[in-house]
Amino acid sequence: MAGKDKVSLNVAPGEAVGVVAAQSIGEPGTQMILRSFHAAGISSLITTKGLPRIIEIVDARKRPKFPMMYVTLQSSIAKKYENVRAVWREIEEVKVSSVLKSFSEDLRAQTMTLELDKEKLTSYEITPRFVASRLEKIPGASVSQDENAIKVKIKREDMKSTRTAFVDVRDASIKGVPGIPKALVQQEADGRFYITTAGSNIAGVMEIEGVDKTHVYSNDIFEVMRVYGIEAARNLIAHELYDTMSDEGFTVSFRHPSLVADTMTHVGTIKSIGRHGVAGEKESVFARAAYEETVKHFTNAGVFGEKDMLRGVAENILIGKQISVGTGMVKLAIKKDDLKNVKAKE
User: Nearest CA to 201 among 39, 56, 71, 47?
Assistant: First the structure.
């Protein structure tokens, strides 16, 4: 297992690695609460950094609150700003609403008039005709253009569906990768440019010419799993946990978030740390009941005749039995003859 720190990764047999990992992540988490939620005057500026981001990861949220990507460009164009800017134009999604100055609707005539903003069209380097050509692809829509105004007529059965269609027209994507409302060109210290995005769509970005397909980074764990596989998602979980704590100024050995990532992904999909995931799917009845929903687990165990073999830590603590951790793993035996000799000496 490769780690980011220089500490030896050798683990003594019987060491309670789960408890140590929980303590190593949980203790900094209490400090993050103080820094994040108790800081006067900045509560409105809290984003998914610090503890909220850690909770988002270990809860295995299907979609992060603030998805983002780092898009690396091919080495042949990475230092050429104009080429990078051309890639940026292909990535950032432009909707009809992004270039609108005003609009009007006539529900009876089922027509909608769009007045386009010249400055916004220039900034996105698109023309009114380009916008009209995209709107023509909407089923049942007839489009006519007059300078910076576009008139759209959509045939629908009733007024409600017409109104819904008009909303869809304003939300229609005319350029860029769906799901990426904002993209920004940034430069590294060595002069190379890269693109950061608000929103994540790995598959869509990888189709754009000039993008280095092997170096597209997203903080969306489930999307990474869908595109790159479970091992990539496991690495992302471990590094996101480690980097989040490092950004807050805490020094944590990489082995601890790595163990959490292994636990969440070892079954081939991503499981949350909680009653709907890892803790709620343990083999032991006592271990499940000790976490949450105690009555439910005991009731189900009684109804279905489940057995608890008492192999884990939590269940043995509950019944007062020695746990198989540390010296508890050692089983000593003595020969009868040797025992007789010991008693004889006493």
Answer: 71
* DSSP per-residue string spanning 172-192: -EEES-TT--EEEEEE-TTS-
CA distances for 226 relative to 72, 137, 264, 270, angstroms: 20, 29, 16, 11
Q: What is the CB neighbour count within 10 angstroms for residue 235?
A: 15
The pLDDT tens digits for 9-54 are: 678 888 888 888 988 888 887 777 655 554 444 343 335 678 888 8
d(CA 264, CA 225): 13
Q: Could you tell me if 273 and 59 are in contact, meaning their C-beta atoms sit under 8 angstroms apart?
A: yes
* Residue 198, helix vs strand vs coil: strand
Closest CA to 155 of 145, 143, 173: 143
Bin 271: left if φ > 0, else alpha if -120 < ψ < 50, else beta: beta
Strands 182-187 and 94-95: unpaired
Q: How far apart are CA 71 and CA 65, in angstroms?
A: 19
Q: What is the separation, in whole angstroms, between the first and last Cα of the chain?
A: 50
At residue 305, φ and ψ (nearest 5 deg) are 65, 45
Comparing CA positions, the residue from 247, 245, 200 lying closest to residue 65 is 200
Chain segment 44-86, per-residue pLDDT in tens: 333 567 888 888 999 999 989 889 999 999 999 999 999 999 9
CB 100: neighbour CB atoms within 10 A? 16
Neighbour tally for 216: CB within 10 Å = 21
Say what percent of the chain tops pLDDT 90. 32
Q: Is the pTM of this model over 0.85?
A: no
- What CA–CA distance (Å, rounded) separates 288 from 297? 7
CA distance 231 to 40: 40
